[in-house]
C-alpha cells in the first residue's frame, strides 16, 4: 500500500507550495496551509477525525488571539480538563464540544482499544486546540508548544508518554506525521515500548494505513469536492447563527429537567426552541402526566407568547412554575431574562411547586437587573 | 442540386430540431443542409471558451442569438485552479458586439465576467433578454445595474452561485418603470442588502414572473407581500424565513402561500427559524423540485415532516443532516423521485448525522425512478452499491463522494471495486460517474468494459498503476471529459493513445505521476491540443527538467491555438511559433474521421456537441470525393435517427459532387 502513502506526502507538499490557494480562500483553507506548515503531529492529529467544526473552532481561536499568544493555551487546557471530567450537562457551555462529539464515534471505530476512549478523546480534543492555536504562524509553534506541554502533562498525568511522543514526532517530516494520527493513541497505549519511537510508530501505521491515510487526505485542498461557493455560504450561515444565538450553530444544548413529584428526569435541547413559549409547551407535553390543572392550561393558552409578566402570573396562579439553575448555581424563575441570555446561562431546569418557588421571584428580578 | 427543396422549407423543418447534437448531425448530411443549418442556427453551445474564437463562431453561425459558454475547468469549483487562470468573457462580448450580432441570450459558467462586459452587453444588444451566470466571478452590482437599467426586454436574470464582489443592493432599483417583461429573477447568491421597496414594485409590475429566488436579506414580511403580488409564481426561492414574533405575520404568510397554487419548485430558506415550516405545507403537495441544500436551519423532525408532505417530488437537493432515517422517509414518500443530491452540512467534519450506505439503499429501494445521484456520505459498502445497482438500473449520473477519500468497505475492509463495478454494469445509460473510496485498477477494468455511454468521469485517490487509466481510455468510447486527481497515473497512461484526446473536450490530471516531458510529448504529437501546466509553487523559474512531475495538467482540444491570456503560473506547452489559427490538414482530418468512424457513426459525427472541431474544415468536405463518399451514408443514418417526424425524403444526386460518385448507398436507405 505504498502508493496511497506516497500520495499523502505529495499532497501535503503541494499544499504548502501553492500560495495562490491562500489568496482565493477563506479562513478554513488558509488554516490548512497553516497546519501543513506547522509540520506538527498535533495538527495532523486534527485530521484523524476529519476536522469537524473547523470553522467554529477556528473562529474561537481567532477571537482568543486578542491576548498574548502563549497565554491562552493553559487556559484552554483547563477547559479541556473540565470537559473530559465534566458532566454531560456542562457540555454545551464549551464551544469545543460539538467537535468532540464528532470525534468520539469515529476515533472509537478506528482505535482498536475501545476502553481507551477517554484518552483518545483527550488527545483529539487537545491536539485540536493546539493545532488551531498554533496554526496561524509557524514560528509560534515552538514557543507556545513548549508552554503548553507542561500543563498537558499535568492535566493528563496518567499518560506521561503522550506529550513526549508529541514533541518527538513534531520534529519529523510532514508526510510521516500525517500518517501517524488516529492510530497514535492506541499505539501509545498498547505498545508502550515503542510509544516514543517515531519510526516504530510509522511502521505500525503503514500496516494500518488504510485507516490513517484517508485522514491525511481530509486536509487536502479540494476535497471533499464541494463547490467553494457552497462551503463559504454554509460557513457564513453557521457563523451568522453563532452571532444570533451566541452559541455554535448546530450544537445541541442539553439540560436536565426535573419536576417536583415526577419520578424521572428528562433532558431537553435548548437550541431547538426559540422562545420561552416553545420551551414551555414542550415541557408541558413531556410532563403532562404530572402537570395538574392550571399550569397545563396556562401553557396551552400562552403558547404563542409567554412573556415575563405571564410567568409571574403563573407563579401566583398555578401550582407549578418553571425554574432554572444559572451558571452561578442560583435557582431563578424562567423568563427573567431575554431568551438568548437564558440559553447561555441555563444549566438545569426544574418544574417546582409554585409554593416552593415563591422566594425565587425577587431574587430573580434582582439578578436580571444586575445582569442588565 | 438540392434546391428542389427551397431553403425556407428546409429551414422550417430544421426549426423543429432543437437538440444541438441533432443540429450538428443535420449539418453533416450535405453541403446544402450544412449551409441552411448554419444560417438558421440560433443557439450555440461552447463547452470550452478556448476551443474556438468568437470570430469563427460568427463566421459559422451568423444568426446566433443564444450563446452558452463555459470557462474554467470543473475542478475550479474545488479551488484546484488558480483564481486568475482565465476564462474571460470580455473578448467574446467585444467581438460579438463589433460584428453586430443580435445576441439575446447569454449563459455563462465558470467564467470571469467583468462589469465592463455586462455594460457592453446592456448597451450593445438591444434585444437582450436573458443572462444566466453560474459559478462566475469578477463582476459587481454595478454590472447588474447596467443590465437592469439598459436591457428593456430583459426576461431572465439568473445568478447562480456566483462570487459577486460588491453586494450593494442598488441594482434592483435600476430596472426602469417600463420594465414589465421579467419572467425569471434569481439573486439568491448575492450577499448584501437589497432595496425591498424596489423589489416589491418590480415584482408587482411583472405579470409574467414565474421564477423568483430571493437572497438572505429579504425578510419574511417582504416575502409575504411579494407572494400576494405574484401568486402566479412557479419557482420560489425563499431568502430569510425567520419567524416573526407577532403571529400576525405568519398568519399572513400562510394566507399568501396558500394562494400560490402553481409553485412547483421551492428552494432557499437561507435563514430559518424552523418553527413556521407548517406555513408551506399547503403547497408541498405540488412540489416537483425542492432544494434545501442551503438550509441548514431545517433539520430533524421539521425536515422529515416537511418531506412527508412532498409526495410528487422529482428532484430533491438536501443536506446530510437529513440522516439515514430521513432518507427512509424520502424513500417512502417520494415515489416519483428522479434526482437526489445529498450535500455535506459540514464537509470538513466527521458529521454526526451524515448519511451512510443505509440511506442510499433505502432510497434506491423506495424510488425506482431515480436516475441522478450526488451523494456525500461517511461510508459505503460493496453490498450496498450492488443493491443500489439492482434497484435503480436507470442511473444517468452517479456521483458518490465518501468524505474520507480512500475509505474501504467498512464491513469487509475490501476496496469498493465490486460495488462500482455493479453500478457500471447494470446502469447502461450512465453518462457521468464520480468515484471515491478505496479503489484499485479493477474498478477501471469494469468501467472500461461496461460504461459504454460514459461521457464524464471523475477520479480521485484511486488505482494502483497506469493500467487503471488505460482501461478507461481504451474502453469508454464516448468519454468527453476526464478529470483525475491524486492517482498513480504516469506518462505511460498519458501517452498510450494521444489521439483519444482529440475526441474529448478535456483532460485534467493533478497530483499524478505525469512528468513535464510526458506533457511536452503530447503537445508535440497533437498540435490541435493545448496542454497547460499549472505551476503554483513559488519558483519563479520553471524547472525545465523533463523528468519533473507536473502538479496540474489541463489539456483540451482547440481550433485557435495557444491562448494569450494565461497568467504566469500557467504554461502552455508546444511550439510557440505555431500559427494562431492552426487547422489540421485535410489529410489529417480524413485519417481522423476514419479512426473515429470505427466506433460507429454517432461518435464520428458527434465529436463534440457543438461541432466546432469540424467547423473550421467543413467547407472543404463537399469538394473532396473521399469524404463525401462515406458522408451521405452516415448522413442518412443521422436523418433516420434525428428526424423522427420526417415523412418524405428525397435524395438527389448532386452535380457539385460529380455524377459518377456513389454518394448514397443502399445502406443509407436501410437506415432511413
TrEMBL record, chain A:
<comment type="similarity">
    <text>Belongs to the Aux/IAA family.</text>
</comment>
<dbReference type="InterPro" id="IPR003311">
    <property type="entry name" value="AUX_IAA"/>
</dbReference>
<dbReference type="InterPro" id="IPR053793">
    <property type="entry name" value="PB1-like"/>
</dbReference>
<dbReference type="Pfam" id="PF02309">
    <property type="entry name" value="AUX_IAA"/>
</dbReference>
<keyword id="KW-0804">Transcription</keyword>
<comment type="function">
    <text>Aux/IAA proteins are short-lived transcriptional factors that function as repressors of early auxin response genes at low auxin concentrations.</text>
</comment>
<feature type="domain" description="PB1">
    <location>
        <begin position="252"/>
        <end position="356"/>
    </location>
</feature>
<keyword id="KW-0805">Transcription regulation</keyword>
<dbReference type="InterPro" id="IPR033389">
    <property type="entry name" value="AUX/IAA_dom"/>
</dbReference>
<comment type="subunit">
    <text>Homodimers and heterodimers.</text>
</comment>
<protein>
    <recommendedName>
        <fullName>Auxin-responsive protein</fullName>
    </recommendedName>
</protein>
<feature type="region of interest" description="Disordered">
    <location>
        <begin position="1"/>
        <end position="20"/>
    </location>
</feature>
<keyword id="KW-0927">Auxin signaling pathway</keyword>
<keyword id="KW-0678">Repressor</keyword>
<keyword id="KW-0539">Nucleus</keyword>
UniProtKB/TrEMBL annotation, chain B:
<keyword id="KW-0927">Auxin signaling pathway</keyword>
<dbReference type="InterPro" id="IPR006553">
    <property type="entry name" value="Leu-rich_rpt_Cys-con_subtyp"/>
</dbReference>
<dbReference type="InterPro" id="IPR041567">
    <property type="entry name" value="COI1_F-box"/>
</dbReference>
<protein>
    <recommendedName>
        <fullName>F-box domain-containing protein</fullName>
    </recommendedName>
</protein>
<dbReference type="InterPro" id="IPR001611">
    <property type="entry name" value="Leu-rich_rpt"/>
</dbReference>
<dbReference type="Pfam" id="PF18511">
    <property type="entry name" value="F-box_5"/>
</dbReference>
<dbReference type="InterPro" id="IPR041101">
    <property type="entry name" value="Transp_inhibit"/>
</dbReference>
<feature type="domain" description="F-box">
    <location>
        <begin position="5"/>
        <end position="46"/>
    </location>
</feature>
<dbReference type="InterPro" id="IPR001810">
    <property type="entry name" value="F-box_dom"/>
</dbReference>
<dbReference type="Pfam" id="PF13516">
    <property type="entry name" value="LRR_6"/>
</dbReference>
<dbReference type="InterPro" id="IPR032675">
    <property type="entry name" value="LRR_dom_sf"/>
</dbReference>
<dbReference type="Pfam" id="PF18791">
    <property type="entry name" value="Transp_inhibit"/>
</dbReference>
Amino acid at each position: 500500500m505504498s502508493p496511497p502513502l506516497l500520495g499523502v506526502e505529495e499532497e501535503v507538499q503541494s499544499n504548502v507550495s501553492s500560495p495562490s490557494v491562500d489568496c482565493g480562500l477563506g479562513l478554513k483553507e488558509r488554516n490548512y496551509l497553516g497546519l501543513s506548515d506547522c509540520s506538527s503531529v498535533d495538527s495532523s492529529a486534527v485530521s484523524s477525525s476529519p476536522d469537524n467544526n473547523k470553522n467554529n473552532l477556528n473562529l474561537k481561536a481567532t477571537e482568543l488571539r486578542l491576548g498574548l499568544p502563549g497565554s491562552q493555551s493553559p487556559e484552554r487546557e483547563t477547559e479541556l480538563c473540565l470537559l473530559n471530567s465534566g458532566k454531560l450537562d456542562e457540555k454545551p457551555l464549551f464551544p469545543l464540544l460539538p467537535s468532540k462529539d464528532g470525534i468520539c464515534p469515529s476515533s472509537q471505530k478506528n482505535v482498536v482499544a475501545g476502553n481507551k476512549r477517554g484518552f483518545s478523546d483527550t488527545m483529539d480534543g487537545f491536539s485540536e486546540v493546539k493545532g488551531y492555536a498554533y496554526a496561524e504562524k509557524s514560528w509560534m509553534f515552538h514557543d507556545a508548544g513548549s508552554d503548553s506541554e507542561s500543563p498537558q502533562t499535568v492535566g493528563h498525568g496518567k499518560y506521561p508518554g503522550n506529550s513526549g511522543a508529541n514533541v518527538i514526532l513534531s520534529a519529523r517530516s510532514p508526510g510521516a506525521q500525517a500518517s501517524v494520527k488516529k492510530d497514535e493513541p492506541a499505539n501509545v497505549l498498547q505498545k508502550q515500548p515503542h510509544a516514543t519511537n517515531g519510526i516504530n510508530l510509522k511502521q505500525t501505521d503503514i500496516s494500518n494505513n488504510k485507516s490513517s491515510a484517508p485522514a491525511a487526505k481530509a486536509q487536502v485542498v479540494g476535497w471533499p469536492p464541494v463547490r467553494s461557493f457552497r462551503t463559504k455560504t454554509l460557513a457564513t450561515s453557521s457563523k451568522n447563527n453563532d452571532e444570533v444565538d451566541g452559541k455554535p450553530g448546530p450544537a445541541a444544548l442539553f439540560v436536565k429537567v426535573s419536576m417536583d413529584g415526577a419520578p424521572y428526569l428528562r433532558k431537553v435541547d435548548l437550541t431547538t426552541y426559540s422562545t420561552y413559549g416553545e420551551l414551555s409547551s414542550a415541557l408541558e407535553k413531556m410532563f403532562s402526566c404530572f402537570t395538574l390543572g392550571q399550569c397545563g392550561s396556562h401553557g396551552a393558552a400562552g403558547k404563542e407568547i409567554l412573556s415575563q409578566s405571564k410567568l409571574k402570573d403563573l407563579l401566583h396562579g398555578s401550582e407549578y412554575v418553571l425554574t432554572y439553575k444559572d451558571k452561578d448555581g442560583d435557582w431563578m424563575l424562567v423568563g427573567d431574562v431575554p431568551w438568548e441570555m437564558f440559553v447561555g446561562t441555563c444549566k438545569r431546569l426544574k418544574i417546582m411547586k409554585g409554593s416552593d418557588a415563591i422566594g425565587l421571584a425577587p431574587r430573580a428580578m434582582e439578578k436580571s437587573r444586575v445582569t442588565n | 442540386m438540392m434546391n428542389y427543396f427551397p431553403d425556407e422549407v428546409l429551414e422550417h423543418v430544421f426549426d423543429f430540431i432543437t437538440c444541438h447534437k441533432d443540429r450538428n448531425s443535420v449539418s453533416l448530411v450535405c453541403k446544402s443542409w450544412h449551409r441552411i443549418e448554419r444560417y438558421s442556427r440560433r443557439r450555440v453551445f461552447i463547452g470550452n471558451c478556448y476551443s474556438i474564437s468568437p470570430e469563427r463562431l460568427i463566421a459559422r453561425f451568423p444568426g446566433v442569438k443564444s450563446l452558452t459558454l463555459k470557462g474554467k475547468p470543473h475542478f475550479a469549483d474545488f479551488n484546484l485552479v488558480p483564481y486568475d487562470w482565465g476564462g474571460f468573457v470580455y473578448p467574446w462580448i467585444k467581438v460579438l458586439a463589433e460584428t453586430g450580432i443580435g445576441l439575446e441570450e447569454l449563459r455563462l459558467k465558470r467564467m470571469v465576467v467583468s462589469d465592463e462586459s455586462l455594460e457592453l452587453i446592456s448597451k450593445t444588444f438591444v434585444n437582450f433578454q436573458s443572462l444566466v451566470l453560474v459559478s462566475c466571478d469578477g463582476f459587481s452590482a454595478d454590472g447588474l445595474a447596467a443590465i437592469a437599467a439598459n436591457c428593456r426586454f430583459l426576461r431572465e436574470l439568473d445568478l447562480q452561485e456566483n462570487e459577486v464582489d460588491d453586494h450593494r443592493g442598488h441594482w434592483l432599483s435600476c430596472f426602469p418603470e417600463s420594465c414589465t417583461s421579467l419572467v425569471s429573477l434569481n439573486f439568491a447568491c448575492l450577499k448584501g442588502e437589497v432595496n425591498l421597496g424596489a423589489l416589491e414594485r418590480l415584482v408587482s409590475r411583472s405579470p409574467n414572473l414565474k421564477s423568483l429566488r430571493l437572497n438572505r436579506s429579504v425578510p419574511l414580511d417582504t416575502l409575504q407581500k411579494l407572494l400576494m403580488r405574484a401568486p402566479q409564481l412557479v419557482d420560489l426561492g425563499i431568502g430569510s424565513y425567520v419567524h416573526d414574533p407577532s403571529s400576525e405575520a405568519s398568519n399572513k404568510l400562510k394566507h399568501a402561500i396558500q394562494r400560490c397554487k402553481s409553485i412547483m419548485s421551492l428552494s432557499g430558506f437561507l435563514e430559518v427559524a424552523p418553527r413556521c415550516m407548517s406555513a408551506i405545507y399547503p403547497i408541498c403537495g405540488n412540489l416537483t423540485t425542492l432544494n434545501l441544500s442551503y438550509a441548514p436551519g431545517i433539520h430533524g423532525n421539521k425536515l422529515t415532516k416537511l418531506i412527508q408532505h412532498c409526495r410528487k417530488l422529482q428532484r430533491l437537493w438536501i443536506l446530510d443532516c437529513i440522516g439515514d432515517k430521513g432518507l427512509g422517509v424520502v424513500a417512502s414518500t417520494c415515489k416519483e423521485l428522479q434526482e437526489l443530491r445529498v450535500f455535506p452540512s459540514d464537509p470538513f467534519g466527521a458529521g454526526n448525522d451524515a448519511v451512510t450506505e443505509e440511506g442510499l439503499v433505502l432510497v434506491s429501494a423506495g424510488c425506482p425512478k431515480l436516475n441522478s445521484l450526488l451523494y456525500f456520505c461517511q461510508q459505503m459498502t460493496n453490498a450496498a452499491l450492488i443493491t443500489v445497482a439492482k434497484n435503480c438500473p436507470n442511473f444517468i449520473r452517479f456521483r458518490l463522494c465518501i468524505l474520507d477519500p480512500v475509505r474501504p468497505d467498512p464491513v469487509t475492509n475490501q476496496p469498493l471495486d465490486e460495488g462500482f463495478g455493479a453500478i457500471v454494469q447494470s446502469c447502461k445509460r450512465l453518462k457521468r460517474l464520480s468515484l471515491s473510496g478505496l479503489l484499485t485498477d479493477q474498478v477501471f477494468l469494469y468501467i472500461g468494459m461496461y460504461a459504454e455511454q460514459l461521457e464524464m468521469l471523475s477520479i480521485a485517490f484511486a488505482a494502483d498503476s497506469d493500467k487503471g487509466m488505460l482501461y478507461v481510455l481504451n474502453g469508454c468510447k464516448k468519454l468527453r471529459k476526464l478529470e483525475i486527481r491524486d492517482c498513480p497515473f504516469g506518462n505511460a497512461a498519458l501517452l498510450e493513445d494521444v489521439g483519444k484526446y482529440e475526441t474529448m473536450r478535456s483532460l485534467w490530471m493533478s497530483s499524478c505521476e505525469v512528468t513535464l516531458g510526458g506533457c511536452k510529448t503530447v503537445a508535440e504529437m497533437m498540435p490541435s491540443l493545448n496542454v497547460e501546466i499549472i505551476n503554483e509553487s513559488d519558483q519563479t523559474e520553471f524547472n525545465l527538467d523533463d523528468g519533473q512531475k507536473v502538479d496540474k495538467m489541463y489539456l483540451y482540444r482547440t481550433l485557435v491555438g495557444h491562448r494569450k491570456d494565461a497568467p504566469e503560473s500557467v504554461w502552455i506547452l508546444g511550439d510557440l511559433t505555431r500559427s494562431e489559427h492552426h487547422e489540421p490538414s485535410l489529410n489529417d482530418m480524413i485519417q481522423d474521421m476514419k479512426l473515429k468512424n470505427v466506433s460507429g457513426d454517432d461518435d464520428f459525427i458527434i465529436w463534440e456537441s457543438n461541432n466546432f472541431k469540424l467547423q473550421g474544415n467543413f467547407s472543404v468536405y463537399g469538394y473532396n470525393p473521399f469524404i463525401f463518399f462515406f458522408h451521405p451514408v452516415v448522413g442518412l443514418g443521422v436523418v433516420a435517427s434525428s428526424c423522427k417526424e420526417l415523412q418524405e425524403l428525397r435524395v438527389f444526386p448532386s452535380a457539385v459532387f460529380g455524377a459518377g460518385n456513389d454518394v448514397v448507398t443502399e445502406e443509407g436507405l436501410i437506415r432511413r
